[in-house]
Structure formats: C-alpha cells, structure tokens
C-alpha cells in the first residue's frame, strides 16, 4: 500500500482527520485529536497496535518498534508496500479503534463512535 492508499483507508474511518504536526512531509492520522497512524517523509508507516500484536510483529521481524513511540506499543514499517493491502488496512482499522476507545465517552459520541 502506498502513501495515498494509507490515507484513503485512514480517512474512511469514523471521525478520522489528517494533520501535519511534524511538517508537510509527514501525514498524521488522528481520531479525537489523538494520532493512530503516521506516514513519514520517506514513506515509512508507524501505527498503534495491541500489546500482543506488538510482541508478535516485532518478534517475527515483520515490523520494528516505532522510534519514540515503542513504549506506547507502536510499530514501524519501513515500506508498507511490502504488506498485503487488506492486512495493512485491518491493522490501521484496529489502530483507530484502540485510540478511539480511550477517548471520553462524550467525545466518542460526538464523533459517531459510541
């Protein structure tokens, strides 16, 4: 999946927005003002995963811990095109859900997530 494909998947999720807090060459996808995925200037992709997915993906070498965000269970893919599109789309959907679940109930309702 390329940068445009990641954007298409992320922005199709409920309440998702695109921001550029780290410069125009970085795409940060957010829900409720909180990031769930980032595409870097060189095309790498980082996203939030569950504790179990973090262990599995990093131990088998499919992903590496995301710089600066690994302690929050984010993984990084150097080239998202190496992953099947449907599998990556599922991970991005899960990342969105993990972040959305931590939003206050009133905010989730306002975004149509409750």
Task: Tell me what you see in this structure.
By secondary structure, the protein is α+β, with helices and mostly antiparallel strands. The chain has one domain (3-104): Alpha-Beta Complex (Aspartate Aminotransferase, domain 1), CATH 3.90.1150. The protein contains 4 helices and 6 strands; from the N terminus they run αββββαββαα. The protein has a 6-stranded antiparallel beta sheet, with helices on one face. A hairpin with an 8-residue loop joins strand 5 (64-65) and strand 6. The chain is globular, with a radius of gyration of 13 Å. The termini are far apart.
Unreliable stretches (pLDDT < 50, length at least 5) are none
Structural class given helices, strands, pairing?
A: alpha+beta
Instruction: Tell me the distance between the termini.
Output: 29 Å
Name given to the CATH architecture: Alpha-Beta Complex
- Number of DSSP strands? 6
Rg, alpha carbons: 13 Å
Q: β content, as a range?
A: 15-25%
Q: What sequence of helices (H) and strands (E) makes up the elements?
A: HEEEEHEEHH
Q: How would a crystallographer describe the biggest sheet? A: 6 strands, antiparallel
Helix content: 25-40%
Assembly type of the chains comes to single chain
Output mean pLDDT: 95
Q: Spatial order of the strands in the main sheet?
A: 1-2-3-4-6-5
The level 1 CATH classification is Alpha Beta
Helical run tally: 4
Number of domains: 1
Q: Indicate the CATH topology.
A: Aspartate Aminotransferase, domain 1
**Overall 3D form:** globular
